[in-house]
Amino acid sequence: MKTTYLMATLALVAATSAQAQTKAPAPDRATQVMKASFKERGQAKLDRLNQDKAMELCTKYTTTPIPRKLAAEIEAENVKTIPFPADGKYLGDWKAGERIAQSGVGMQFTDNPANPSGANCYACHKLAPQELSYGTIGSSLYQFGKLRGYSPDIAKYAYGKIYNSQAYAACSNMPRFGHNKVLTETQIKDLVALLMDPESPVNK
After folding, report:
1. Beta-bridge partner residues of 44
2. CB burial string 168-202: b at 16+ within 10 A, e below
3. pLDDT mean across residues, the chain
């Protein structure tokens, strides 16, 4: 009995040791497997798997904080990509902005690419208090303008953050809506109005 128990224990230890020595697949190999499993359908093309410089750098720091100097470099490079409105106006129609914030339509292979995309803001943020279903991955945007003020500088910041979030927070989880051509300039202005217009429910 003791011999059997000892052999079983040794076998378990050996198996545990073997598992501990098993290495996780190399990142390159994991990327190859992912790309091989992704099939193009409709507007969902394989180029969506390609990373730009910022994404490549952020991928290296998924489990550890990114160094401040590198984060500053990413933000500086990304802020250069933002074409702020030529007319100098950042606010559109907050009612249209609310519809965009509510909509998760767009960019999927089942969606018509000719139709405008939504931003699905409520998936990550609290905005208007009337909407009870919202995510908390992002910060609360309720009373965004009321708390920060309705200055042109804040409106410009909001526009830039929606256009390319990495310009203000390196490795942000927030999509780069303008940079990746998910939203148009007009749509981004409408979202800024949702955040900044005193008449918007967000600021009530």
Report:
1. 41
2. eebbbebbbbbbeebbebebbbbbbbbbbbeebbb
3. 89
